[in-house]
Amino acid sequence: MGKHILVVDDSKTVRNLVAFIMKNEGFKVTTAEDGLDGLEKLYSCGAVDLIITDINMPHMDGFTFIENVRKQDAYRDLPIVVLSTEGQEQDIKLGMSLGANLYMVKPAQPEKMVRNVRMLLGQ
C-alpha cells in the first residue's frame, strides 16, 4: 500500500469519487463525513500522509478543521489540500492563511488532483 490519504467531505458522492481516484493510483484512503469525523479519523487511523478536505460541511467546516489540525505539533507539516466549490478569492486566501498547502476548486480534473497530491508528497 502507498501513502495514506484522509478525504473529508460531507458529500458521499465526492468522498467515493476522490477515494476511487486515489485508490486507483495506489494510495490507501480513509474517508470522513465532516471536520469532526475527520479529526476523529486522523487521531484513530494511524499515520496519515495527506488530507483532502471540503470547506462547506455540517458540524465542523473545513476552515475550522484545518485550524484544529494545524494547532497540533504532530500535524503542523501534514500536507492539506482544499477541494471545494467555494472558489472566491477570500475563501482561497482564508484557506491558505489557515494552513492549506493547495486550494482546488470543484470539479477538479482527476489527473490534476493526482499530480498535485504526488507533488505535495514529494513523489
TrEMBL record:
Keywords: Phosphoprotein. Residues 4-121 form the Response regulatory domain. The keyword Phosphoprotein applies. Pfam families: Response_reg (PF00072). InterPro entries: Bact_response_regulator, CheY-like_superfamily, Sig_transdc_resp-reg_receiver. The keyword RNA-binding does not apply. The modification 4-aspartylphosphate is found at D54. PROSITE patterns: RESPONSE_REGULATORY. One of its GO terms (biological process) is phosphorelay signal transduction system. It comes from the Bacteria. PANTHER family: CHEMOTAXIS TWO-COMPONENT RESPONSE REGULATOR, STRESS RESPONSE REGULATOR PROTEIN 1. This is Chemotaxis protein CheY. It comes from Halodesulfovibrio spirochaetisodalis.
